[in-house]
Amino acid sequence: MKGNSIKENAAAAAMRTALNYINGKNPDEAIEHVMEWIDRFDSKEGTVKAQMKYVHEYLSDKDGPWYKFVKSFWNDIDPDVREKTFENFIINATILGGRRKKAQMEKYGCNIPWTILIDPTSACNLHCTGCWAAEYGNKLNLSYETIDSIINQANDLGTRMFLFSGGEPLVRKEDIIRLCKAHPDSQFMAFTNGTLIDDNFAKAMLEVKNFIPAISVEGFEEATDFRRGNGTFKAVERAMRILREHKLPFGVSCCYTHQNVRVIGSEEYFDWMIGQGAKFAWFFTYVPVGVGAPTNLMADADDRAFMYERIREYRKTKPIFTMDFWNDGEYVKGCIAGGRYYFHINANGDAEPCAFIHYSNMNIKEHTLIEVLQSPLFKQYALHQPFSENYLRPCPLLDNYGDLSEMVHAAGATSTDLAAKEDVDELCSKCKNAAENWKKKADSIWSSSHPSEII
């Protein structure tokens, strides 16, 4: 790890013990030893103490879905990739990175994110309904040197996890692989439509070992092709087959809308994802970002409640790691944007608090990463978070009407939309009814599951 302290170097040396466990042929012994090692290694700092409490609880049942999920990494994943994923994700990004971030936050007086979402390009080979990138076209690209500089600056702050989106990030697949090679002690992931994954790219992933795709799917063939174009679903299944054959980890990224939510939340769909070999599933809800973006795709309050219930139920029975970036706000105490856990850099270099919030004060081409994190809009986020005491209402746009407008105006931030500048008050007005309706439903759910807490 570049820029390490003596303490961090000693810790990095100690982690070789854990990696030896990861390489063990007996997964049952390996899982036990790795958990014991993390507990011991983190005993003084307590960086992942809260998370490990849940890990021990979930893995106590060796016949349960979580134990089956963890054990599958020994059966399904290339051993060198498994080792590198553990090293970068658990040790570098979470434990050692967490320690460094804590010190840097005190030094600079601002949030330091766990991950940064970067758009290498605005270009995409698809034209999905309701996606702002579909309107941008092949207009903008961040240079390799700019992305490399972002990663270097982030590493110095303790951030070792990087996500790529777009556009379609794999339009820049050669540069992405080059970045993975240049930063072997960081972990990389991309939200991709999957259509550009082929055998050669899978071989490149095996070589670098620190890149994992999250493939976007809207449900089964009818729903996926409806939004993403004919033939997309079959291309996705082909990509998943290639990744399985090369024993590479991958996940699924699902955007649920009012039209597809009952499919996305069905047991049949969860079983399909697991059967395809997906190790995780990220769930997002549709946000009508962009001038003219359709509002009829927005999930209503019943849709949100349905996903809340389904995902929690499947966590008890299905061997797949899931995260709902709205309904899981209770686990991270609200909104994660604005540098609290993550922020977004678009293909023009604009630093935005969230991928869905296209407003900014600064551009990464003109400012350092620390200057971005200390920018007026990011400070507004830090000042207002959490936006609700009900963590099921984490978002300043979809869940708390008026909060986003207030922050954007207070910070003097401007629209960064690459197609047509969108007034923040107009954007918020599109989400007003959804926010007010969800408040009623979310407050009811929260009061039933947290009776001692007053909202």
In short:
This protein is α/β, with parallel strands linked by helices and 455 residues long. The chain contains 19 helices and eleven strands. The termini are far apart.
What does this structure look like?
This protein has helices at 6-22, 27-41, 49-59, 65-76, 79-108, 133-136, 144-157, 173-182, 199-208, 221-228, 232-245, 261-264, 267-276, 301-314, 329-332, 369-373, 376-384, 403-411, 424-449, and strands at residues 115-118, 161-164, 187-192, 211-216, 251-256, 280-285, 321-324, 342-345, 351-352, 359-360, 414-415. The protein is built from 19 helices and eleven strands. The longest helix is centred in the N-terminal third of the chain and has 30 residues, at 79-108. With 455 residues, it is of the alpha/beta class. The strands form two sheets. Strands 7-6-5-4-3-2-1-8-9 form a nine-stranded mixed beta sheet. A two-stranded antiparallel ribbon has the order 10-11. It is globular, with a radius of gyration of 21 Å.
